[in-house]
Amino acid sequence: KLKFELFDNFYEEFQKENLIFNHEHFAIFQNNTYEKIKILHPTRIRRPKSTNSTQALAKIIHSIAHIEFSAINLALDASYRFKNLPLKFYKDWLEVAKDEMKHFKLLNRALEELNFEYGSFEAHENLEDALKATKNSLKYRMGVVHRGLEAKGLDANPFVLKKIQNSNHSIKPFLEEILQIILEEEIIHVKKGDFWWNFAKDERDDYLSLCRQFKEFNLAGKKLNDEARLKAGFSKQELEELKDFYS
Questions:
Q1: Alpha-carbon span 170 to 50, nearest angstrom
Q2: CDD domains, from UniProt (predicted)?
């Protein structure tokens, strides 16, 4: 809560242009994982196949909340770590951080309505690992994280929505609303990642080569959300290449 309040105050000053940029700082790295979360390897986390129980529904919400919490840190880290870039870069990623905080708060509210909270279930550190792996390269950070793993979230959204729609819980309409907000705003986030990936990469760089280089991070869902990815800046050729590569 304090972190969010501090950011809100900072972001208000940033929007008023009351801040002076100093690019001489040394970008440190800190572990951003919430202290109450038990971290497991992704393969050890049991994912509910249905939403028949309140606990199963809460687990699904919790997993999305953890992604959004991690995404806050990723957006803030990008705006802090990479220096001497156009002002638009910092505007973009602080705006993304603001959106991710909104998503997290909505999901956390849903958890509380189910008598759970963020930290009630285990989580993994896949996004945190990607942050570490790309900390020295704007090109890799934008390509792997903000154009890659965030786009994977676009792929997952329809499947999560379908699970929610199969629930008979009274909270279902609220969750459907949250997922729609997340989908619409994450398309914009991925589009920002697409813009800055193209800004940072060399002419000879292509996205499939990035997928090969960072094969430990699967940058596509089991079924691509073609419509959302096209809106976010992917080409039809890239989508076909991704489908072939990850098939």
A1: 16
A2: Ferritin_like
Query: How far is 112 from 106, CA to CA, in rounded Å?
Result: 10
Structure tokens at 207: 């996205």
Beta carbons within 10 angstroms of residue 29's beta carbon: 10
- Determine how many CB atoms are found less than 10 A away from the CB of residue 80: 14
Q: How many residues does the chain have?
A: 247
Domains of the chain (ranges, CATH numbers): 50-246 (1.20.1260)
Give CA–CA dist 134/40, Å, rounded. 21
Token pair recorded at residue 192: 């920002």
Q: What is the pLDDT of residue 29?
A: 65
Map residue 196 onto helix, strand or coil. helix
Place of tokens 């989908």: 183
For residue 8, give every residue at least 6 positions away whose Cβ sits within 8 Å of its Cβ, in sequence order, or none. none
SS3 123: strand
Residue 227 binned pLDDT confidence (cut-offs 50, 70, 90): very high
Q: For the segment 176-197, what is each residue's pLDDT rounded down to a tens digit?
A: 999 999 999 999 999 999 999 9
3 state SS for 204-239: CCCHHHHHHHCCCCCCCCCCCCHHHHHHCCCCHHHH
Give the span between the Cα atoms of 32 and 127, in whole angstroms.
Answer: 11
